[in-house]
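User: Teach me something about this protein's shape.
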Amino acid sequence: MSLPSSGHGLPSGGVTTSTRNAIVVTIDAVATNQTAGLTLENTTAAATGAQQYSPMLIVEGQGWKTAATAASQLVEWALQNRPVQGTTNPTSILDVMSQINSGGWTKPMTLNSDGVATFVGKVNASGSSGIAIQHTGGISYLDGTTALKLRVTEADALAFAATSLDATLTGNFLMGAKYQQMSEMTAPSAGAADTARLYADVSGVKTRLMVIFQTGAAVQIAIEP
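Assistant: First, the predicted structure itself:
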C-alpha cells in the first residue's frame, strides 16, 4: 500500500511506514489537547430507528487448533461505536468484539457513554492488589436488569433492598462459617421503636452476651462460665 507523506487531509507530521511496514502517524506539539490521530468515520446521517454505526477497527491474528483436522484459524478483535437513539440526544456504546474462525462477532465487553461497563464473563485481577472500585454511591449488585439485590454503601453497610440497611459490617463483627463473632463494647444506645440491639460487653473479667431494647433496658442473655 502506498501512502502520501503529507497533504490529502493528512496530519502535518505526515504518515510513513516503518522498516517493518508498520504505518506511523506523526502529529507533533499535541501538548494536552484532544487531537485526532486516526479517524474511521461513517458520515451517513441517521434516521428514526436507523442508526449509523461506525466502521470497525479490526486486529487479526492466527491461532492453531489441535483437534482433527488440525489447522490455523483466523482470530479477530474489533472496536465499534454503536449509536443508540435518544430523546434529547443519542447515546453511544463502544463494543469490544471477538470472532473466531469467522464464526460470528460476539461482544465480551461494552462501555456506554454514561461510563457503564458491561462484561459478559468474569473479571479477573492478577497481582496482590485485587480490584479497587471507588464510587461515592457504593457498589451495587443487580439481578441482570435493574432490580437492586445487594448494595455496599460508603458506610460499610450491606443493603438487600433499595433503601433498607439489613446488616452493618465493621472490624469488630465477623460473619464466619456458620457462626457470628463480635467484640466486647460499651453498651450501645437504644435503637428506634420496634428494634433490639444485640452486643457483647464485659462484666468484671467475663464476657457477656447482652440485648438492649428500645426502652433502653439492657438484659443479659448469657455470661462466660
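Now, about its shape. The chain has four domains: 1-31, 51-120, 139-168, 175-223. The chain is about 0% helix and 40% strand. If you'd like, I can walk through any region in more detail.
User: That's plenty for now, thanks!
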